[in-house]
Amino acid sequence: MPTPPYPSSPSRRPGRALLAALLGAAALLAACASSAERAAVDITSDTIADSSATAFPIEIDTAGGPVTIEARPEAIVSMSPTATEMLWAIGAGDQVKAVDSLSTYPAGTPVTDLSAFEPNLEAIAAQQPDLVVLGFANDEIQAGLAGLGIPVLLEEAASTLDDTYSQMTDLGLATGHPDEAAAAVASVRSGIDEVVKGMAATPGARPTVYHELDDTFYSASSGSFIGQLYQLLGYDNIADAADPDGSVGYPQLNAEQIIKANPDLIVITDAYSYGPADIAARPGWNTIKAVADDRVVVVNDDIASRWGPRVVDFLRTIADATPVPAGAAQQ
Amino acid sequence: MSAPAAAAPGGGTPPRGIPHDGGLPDGDGIAAAFRLRPAALAVAVAVTVAVLGLSVAVGPFPIPLTQILLAVADRLSLPGVHTTLTPQEQVILFQWRLPRAVLGGLVGAALALSGATYQGVFRNPLADPYLLGVAAGAGLGATIVIGGHLQAGWGPLDTVAAAAFVGALAGVLLAAALGRGAGSSPAALLLAGVAVASFLTAVQTYLVQRDSDGFREVYTWILGQLVTSGWGDVALLAPYVAVCGAVILALRRQLDVLRVGDTEAASLGLDPGRIRLVLIVAASLLAAAAVAVSGLISFVGIVVPHVVRLLVGSSNRVVLPLSALGGAAFLMLADLGARTLASPAEVPIGVITAFVGAPFFAFVLWTGRRAIA
To answer: How is chain B split into domains, by residue range?
Structure first.
């Protein structure tokens, strides 16, 4: 039977948008120092005390079921850029033997050509890991690794910040760094609290945001992880009109609708080669408040598409770009 | 050139809806039935214009149709007409809705006319830019240019369109050559087309997978979309539709003559090989240009010509022009659905065309069983 040779079902779109968002360039933000490095400093001082904190073997309750780890892993393979960031943040970086091709943060990760999206069992096994962290469920890889006696932690895309925290905690237990994981979680929490508190000081109506994933107007609603971060900062998300119950996550909007919604802030990522000037040049977009007030923000695509410790940096970038409500500023 | 009707061999009457290999209906008064009747043309034009009006009138900003007509008249500097639309509403109307509707119409016309032409040239009811490897070839060409950041353009001479055209032509010629080598049955050509399309798609997928970062812009494009702003894409596509459409429509009588058989056509002073080649090049250029601006939108090229045949008969003189108009109306309607079904979210237009097209394709296969067997 002839079928169109390309995927075109709507269910593919969020996946595609997510995929596009996940495939990031290696550029680093100067601001990345905050939580990840602070946690890394703590690690060195705590390593000795910490190694006795977990008694192996240990059973970890993950979202994918219980996983037993017999001994402190020393040859971890991370197949998830977010998990890689978390592992370094909790001080388990020197136990990591190999990471997938997109795990380029923090600097110095042992990047290999392993593909996170098309994982190859033999290529993973060839690294002789004693723990594998996956970012996507993959029955064959999971069953294959289980058959080889290699424990697997499945840490899929978080849908809430609590997922982020519990993944960091899981990784802390699994690698023998529970205290540092707790410290890293606390650091992320306090970083977020600090940013949110700064926002609460500005009175006035809730500002609106449009988060643009690409130039065909795919967006992130409050049903997505990143959409929840905007909620945290007190934003109304214009994409929610297209995804009222949050089940889509990444709806495609209509340009006319965006002009009509008139957002106060437009956020784009550096994943594509267009910038604020191109946004302003779109017909009719000069009437949008965000464009008129010069509030089109470019965020690092890696940070905006992961759910690791750098969410604090993302929140800070957005908070800095948030308009002071017109009522408060002018009257 | 109304001779072919009288020259029809007594091969039985082909069923309406499925053009039969070489056979023409016999009997008197057939020549008239093979001409495009003004009434049919008028209806098709009216439907297309009505759909255009509907697509322009519907959107998140409520703008009444009368206001739209006034604004268009004002834009055309008709004396005594002044629009009361705000500047923002005018931008919405003239930079977003109208270009998108017109682009949808042009893409639909290009795909449907291209499909109808292939069906006529190959005397195969299932020939279509997708099944012949044309779209896959165009997709591969465009992918290489987009992914390699080789985009450059001087008006309609765009590198994406050029690469898409080279790929499209390579795809269809390869399929035709393979199909001829495999025998003369309609299935041979289609199987060859499927093989070519699979191969070209595999190459494209490999390129995208190997360098997903460089090729990320291809993802959006592969899925097919009509999201456009301003008149750039329309200006890119319109010359191709105009030139190729004129060439194909000018040859529509000759194409009817070819249905009688190559020997008969040659005896009437035609060069069947050259006519076929010109038509294949024109149809491929049409499909490639459409693919270059809108990505891969499936099933328009097969659904529309078949509906036209079911309604008005299988003469190319009727099917080709009405397919172009029908394709324009169909894709504008599909895009209206894409914009409004889940409003304010968009539904990918390829989903809508395939949702209508796939069951229809099955229906044609089912009802046409006798004709094909």
So the answer is: 3-41+107-372
Sign of CA dihedral A78, A80, A84, A89: negative
**Number of residues written out for chain B:** 373
- Whether residue A223 contacts residue A249, with contact meaning beta carbons closer than 8 Å, is answered with yes
Those residues whose C-beta lies under 8 Å from the C-beta of residue B62, and which sit 6 or more positions away, are none
* Cα gap A48→A96, rounded to integer Å: 18
Measured distance CA(A288)–CA(B69) in Å, rounded: 26
Nearest CA in chain A to B341: A242
**CB atoms < 10 A from the CB of B12, how many?**
10
Q: Which residues of A touch B225 (CB under 8 A)?
A: 216
B349 token code pair: 């237009």
B139 shares contact with chain A (CB less than 8 Å): yes
The β-bridge partners of B154 are: B157
End-to-end CA distance of chain B: 31
Q: Are B302 and B357 in contact (CB under 8 A)?
A: yes
The C-alpha atoms of residue B83 and residue B67 are separated, in whole angstroms, by: 7
Q: Which residues does chain A have within 8 Å of residue B354's beta carbon, measured at their own beta carbons?
A: 4, 8
pLDDT tens per residue, range A7-48:
333 333 333 333 333 333 323 333 333 334 334 434 443 444
Q: Kindly state the tokens that stand for A295.
A: 């509030």
ipTM score? 0.72
Q: Given a cut of 70, is residue B37 above it in pLDDT?
A: yes
CA B313/CA B36 separation, integer angstroms: 10
Residues A134-193: pLDDT tens digits? 998 888 899 999 899 999 999 999 989 999 999 999 999 999 999 999 999 999 999 999
Distance CA(A93)–CA(A87), nearest Å, equals 6
Q: Do A4 and B213 touch (CB under 8 A)?
A: no
Our measurement of the distance from residue A168's CA atom to the centroid of its chain's CA atoms, rounded to an integer in Å, reads 13
For B61, the closest of A5, A215, A256 (CB atoms) is A256
Contacts of B227 in chain A (CB under 8 A): 215-217, 255
What is B3-41+107-372's CATH number, 3.40.50.2000, 1.10.10.10, 3.30.470.20, 1.10.3470.10? 1.10.3470.10
Dmax over CA atoms of chain A, in Å, equals 69
Q: How far is CA A288 from CA A153, A203, A256, A273, B258, in A?
A: 45, 22, 11, 22, 58
Distance CA B91, CA B84 (A): 13
What is each CA distance from B249 to B1, B72, B115, B284, B318, in whole angstroms? 14, 30, 13, 15, 10
Instruction: Report the C-alpha gap between B124 and B198 in whole angstroms.
Output: 20
Residue to test with chain A: of B227, B231, B293, B349, most A Cβ within 10 A = B227
Nearest to B157 by CA among B292, B262, B26: B292
Q: pTM for the whole thing?
A: 0.76
SS3 B142: helix
CA distance A99 to A76: 8
3-state secondary structure A179-210: HHHHHHHHHHHHHHHHHHHHHHCCCCCCCEEE
Phi, psi dihedrals of residue B45, rounded to the nearest 5°: -65, -40
- Residue B152, exposed/middle/buried by CB under 10 A (0-12, 13-18, 19+)? exposed
Q: What is the DSSP string of B339-367?
A: HHTTTTB---HHHHHHHHHHHHHHHHHHH
Give CA–CA dist B287/B144, Å, rounded.
17
Structural domains in chain A, CATH included, are 28-188 (3.40.50.1980), 202-325 (3.40.50.1980)
Count of C-beta atoms within a 10 Å radius of residue A29: 17
DSSP state of B97: I
